[in-house]
Amino acid sequence: MGVLAAALVSLTLGNWQVTFQEADARLDLVNVSGEAHVSGTLAFISGDQAWRVVAPRDAVTNRLALLDPRGNVQGYLAFRGGEDRLTLLVYHRTAQNFVGRLRLTGSVVFTPDSFACRTQPLKGSRVLQLGTGRPDTDLNDSLFDPERDRALLMRGGSMCRLATQGGGRYGFTLDAAIHEASEATVNVTVERDYYRNRYVPYYKPINRKRCPSPPTGWMSWNIYFDKATAEDNLAEARIGQKYLQPFGMEFWHIESWQDNSDSLPVSNFDNLSLKPNQHQFPLGMKRLADDIRALGFRPGLWTAPFGTGSTNFYLAHKDWFLHDQDGKPLSTWNGKFTIDPTHPEVINHLREIHRIASREWGYEYFKIDGMSGRNHGYCAHFFERPEVRARFKDPTCPDPFERCVRAFREGIGEDRVFLACQGHFTGPEAAYADAARTGADIVHPNQPPKWANLLNQARCTLNQIFVNNIVFFADPDTLMVGDDLGIEQARLATTVVALPGQMMFSGDKLAELKPERMRLLQQALPVCDVRPLDIFPVFDMLPVWALHVRRPFAEWQVVALFNWDEKEQAIGFAFDELGLDGTADYAVYEFWTSAYQGVRKARFEMPVPGHGVRLLAVHRAQAVPHFLSSDRHITQGGVELTSLAWDRARNVLSGTVKVVKDYPVTLRFRVPQGFALAAAQAGDGITCQTAAEAGGVVAVKLLSAASQEVPFTLSWKRESTTSGGTGDAPL
Question: Which of 19, 153, 292, 721 gives 20 to 30 Å between its CA and that of 54?
Answer without folding.
Answer: 153
